[in-house]
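Milestone M4 deliverable, item 7.
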Amino acid sequence: MKKLFIRIFDFFNTVESKIAFYPTLFAFSGFLVALLMMYLEQHGISRRIMDVLPQLMVEDGDTALTVLSACLGGLISLMVFSFSMVMLLLSQASNNYSPRLLPGLISDKRHQLILGIYLATILYNIFTLFSIEPSEDKYTLPGFSVLLGIAFTIICLVAFIYFIHNISQSIQISNILDTIFEAAELRLQKLISSEEGQTKDFSDTTNWHEYKTGRSGYFQNISINNILRICDDEKTKMYITVPKGLFVLKNSVFLKSEKPLDEKVVSAIISNISFARGELVEDNYVLAFKQITEIAVKAMSPGINDPGTAINAIDYLTDLFALRMQKKDNGIIIHKEKATLRIAVVTFEELMYNVMASLRTYCKHDPIMVEKLLWMLIYLQQQPAAEDNYILAIKKEMETLVSQAKNSFDSNKDVSVIEKMILD
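Output delivered:
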């Protein structure tokens, strides 16, 4: 049952990130509301409201048809314009910043909800039009349904105003960086809190039995409790060799076990692990480092030449690295006071190198950017309770950055400034 629940939860998370998810739900709800109103109209709801508040009701069939037709045509034009704005946002973000940002922007629920409101109202108005006869008198006309159609159209106009405001905010790089940072920060804080009581010691896995997944995809989620239960049943320890969030190749070693496992057990283990074809920051904080780094690199490219954006990106990377330094590198999970399961992680040294290698390539010739990167590394060195291997990785990157910068600078003044920063 838990396995089924996990698969349903993973499927929902995957589908929810699609741009058509919420619009489809809203469109279906608009259709259901239209059917409900047809049922209520058959039971005389408009006649009762007409007797109480006649000034709110449309009393002529031709007028009702004209009003709803105008609302319907305007809403279709509004939806086309809004959808075009979303596509423009995605295209601009891909060209100016990074294609990796597209999944996060597409999964923005606010855009999906607004498009869903449009679709629901359009479908409601269409089916309401079917129930109107021009020759009907005021007591047989579905006046209340027409009134609701007008009210829903007004709600769409309000949603459109909000949409224009939101779309103008979404394209700003500061808001994009902030959204990525908040998602990664939340993920890292969860991982840090889950590491309480962990140990650094785990058995040597060199000679353990190796198993493959038989499928490929991004390692998205894992049911740790079910895996630990299998470890208890088989009286073994396990090691997941691929860090969560990375791409798994079907013929590469994914699982190691202290004791041999039969095919049914391996299949049961793999069934408790979900694979996807896309990446989300909510599932993999490393992706946030990649996205912010790519934004900085793109900003420093000759075609864009926007050092201000690169500096903002480095500020967010600094804060994320400081938070990452609070997380351990072992990925060991304790079960019944024993180190039973280990999941490979992207180490701090690997993460630091991958980020700095890209930034050095495009920033080593710019004194201001080198100074900013040195400021980041110096700040990280001063973090309290930082592990020794983290400090060593930072020192290595600092030495490499300074060495490359000295070879790239044309001015002795620039060289003396960065040397002074290191000495201070």
